[in-house]
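WARN no homologs supplied; continuing
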Amino acid sequence: MLQLSNMLMNQPILSLRTGTEVATLIKPIINPHNLKIEGFYCQDNVDRRELILLPQDIRDALPQGLVINDHDALTEAKDLVRLQSVLALNFELVGKNVRTTSKTKLGKVEDYATDIPSMFIQKIYVSQSILKSFSGGNLGVDRTQIVEINDKEIVINDLEAKVPANARAMA
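OK structure emitted
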């Protein structure tokens, strides 16, 4: 099941044990090397600390919020040794420029869709310039089309040329 990024922001984190909201999800931690959500920054409801929720600690994703066993599933960043290199990158996907391998600028990442069970980002949605958006709207890019991700931009394979509807097939 794919979820848009705004469904993963500002969500309550609910405790299965107490039945109450224990934290609020702030934003995902994205690994740019494989476009996987490695965790989520969240704010503790008790003392307002910034903690991290790992995907394996999520029991269920409901319309009311994410469900975890208990508050103990939330961890401080310094305690997550394996995640330190990804945390240091502080990668933000939304707002990145998108261009093709032939250097054609397509626009900026406006949104993305995540496969919840695997936590891999499957699609990114690119907002194009006003002129391009009148003719074609937003552009959806599958993860298989991505060639490179760096600090400034995302490079994708060249888009296929559109064939006019009245074009004749070559025999």
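Helices lie at 84-89, 130-136.
OK
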